[in-house]
Known about the structure:
- This protein has one domain (3-138): Hotdog Thioesterase (Thiol Ester Dehydrase, Chain A).
- The longest helix is centred in the middle third of the chain and has 17 residues, at 58-74.
- It has helices at residues 3-17, 23-27, 58-74, and strands at residues 29-35, 38-43, 81-90, 100-110, 113-122, 130-138.
- By secondary structure, the chain is α+β, with helices and mostly antiparallel strands.
Amino acid sequence: MSLDIRLDAMRAELDGAVSRDTFWAKLKARIAILEEDRAVLDLAPAGSRCNLAGVVHGGESAAMLDQTCGLAANATAEGRWVTGKAELVYRAPVPGQTVIICEARVTHRTGRQARVEGTVRAVDDDTALVTARMTFIRLREQN
């Protein structure tokens, strides 16, 4: 499958997932950029995704990064990729009730592994609030 066909198929799959009870639908993300080895999502975390201090829960930040990094890993013509390992660094609180930008880029692919780096930041600031280094594994083809 060509890369363009794969990216179109990913967009269509996510569009269809919005109307079902899926993680993607609950995330309420919008794809700003989806290109080879790169994904950028705009998200507006609901108040229910914030902790008692009014900032985005750390687990929610991790979920946003996992989704964004996963899209970047899957933005290739070769197979489906799943999370194998994640390392996150929380640098500053992620503000609640505002637009968040999650960006991820594949930094290296070898065999069935892809290394992806991602960030969470507020829409009006380039400061990385959370950073991630993740490894994704390409699923074996089903016969």
